[in-house]
Amino acid sequence: MTARYAIYYVPPRGSALADKAAAWLGRDAFAGRALARPALPGLEGLDLDALTADPRGYGFHATLKAPFELADGATESALLAFGETFAAGRAPFTAAIAPASLGRFLAFRLEAACAEMDALHGACVREFDRFRAPLSDFDLARRRKAPLSPEQDERLLAWGYPYVFEDFRFHMTLTGAIREPELAERVLAALREHFADVSGPHAFDGVAVFKQDERNAPFHVLERFDFSAQGAEVAGERPAAVDS
After folding, report:
1. pTM of the model
2. Would you write out the chain's pLDDT as a tens digit for each of its 244 residues?
3. So where are the chain's domains?
4. Which of 8, 67, 94, 109 is the most buried (most CB within 10 A)?
5. Which stretches within 132-239 are classed as H helix?
């Protein structure tokens, strides 16, 4: 299998949120190296390596365009050039985020609905799709192991991922699945304390191209591009995307 790419939101390298999240996960996706995890009060005795294993491999991020292999004729350099142009045409926006539950997982989530985030997601799904190869039979079968509605299966075929547009839920994953509710509450309390100074209003000001060199390898940041347009009408903001 070949390399995969993804379009993710990630805070700027060296920002307080990026550094704290990388330390919690035990890995910096910008530098591609392991980090020492801080000792969080209330989590003594837990296997934090196991708790964070899944998100650690992806790096701290929010998915805007799910991982994909390059289409025939597409190149990494062209993808990066398009990413730079895409970001230059969009304006930063602010929305409040904080650690919260997402099913059995814990993640940074939006504290309220955000039309700008929905528009960014929809634009990434649609505009970067020109670089995506159709899903292999292997990946189709892998995705279909989860129960999908007919609409989700159609989106899987059309866009390479089933949970897009109205099924999109912004999240920056902090843990793997936690099946015990009491343990989830314990970890969530510790995370809220750890991230207290970086929760709340957050400036979303760029997108990043991530790369996975081969399956089972960790993802790393190839390049992050800052938004540089002024105002929604210049940035080409769209209303919350709907499926076509």
Report:
1. 0.90
2. 689 999 999 999 999 999 999 999 999 999 999 998 888 899 998 999 999 999 999 999 999 999 999 999 999 999 999 999 999 999 999 999 999 999 999 999 999 999 999 999 999 999 999 999 999 999 999 999 989 999 999 999 999 999 999 999 999 999 999 999 999 999 999 999 999 999 999 999 999 999 999 988 999 999 999 999 876 433 333 333 333 2
3. 4-231
4. 8
5. 137-143, 150-159, 181-194, 232-235
Phi, psi of 107 (to 5 degrees): -160, 160
Given CATH 3.90.1140.10, say whether it is the number of domain 4-231: yes
Look-up of token digits 């837990």? 46
Start-to-end CA span in the chain (Å): 30
How buried is residue 125: exposed, middle or buried, by Cβ count under 10 Å (0-12/13-18/19+)?
A: buried
Whether residue 50 contacts residue 77, with contact meaning beta carbons closer than 8 Å, is answered with no
Q: Is the Cβ–Cβ distance between 17 and 4 less than 8 Å?
A: no
